[in-house]
Amino acid sequence: MTRNKNLAGLYYSKIVKSLKYLEYSYNRTLKMPLNPNQMTDAELESWDSFASRFARTSDIFLSKYIKAQVLNDDPAFDGGFVDQLNRAEKLGLIENVIQWMEIRELRTATVHEYSDQDLEKIFEKFRKFSPLLFALPQKINHET
Prior knowledge:
It contains 6 helices and no strands. The protein is mostly helical.
């Protein structure tokens, strides 16, 4: 139990650090167009950095922090990812499983190639879901 508690604290620290970089990229892209056809190469690079940081931050939370907290609550827990999200919702770590599943899908989307129209929708979702990530330090308790 103590090991998972220590891991959760470590992942909390990583989330906080990762969020600093994510927020920087988020702010850089706020005034940029969503349509890749309207972007300069520098803007595309900024979006790529933002997408990468979004994916990294969400992955630390979803794949590491939540798992550590769920195992802290129930060391014998042996469920899959969706089961972990459902347990995280019951523990008050997240409010909406569906939103976090969509965030996980966005993380996965960053490694695939899409049309410009698809990228525009993906970029829009990055902006939409970033506030959920920014709220994590206040939402989760690194002491538990």
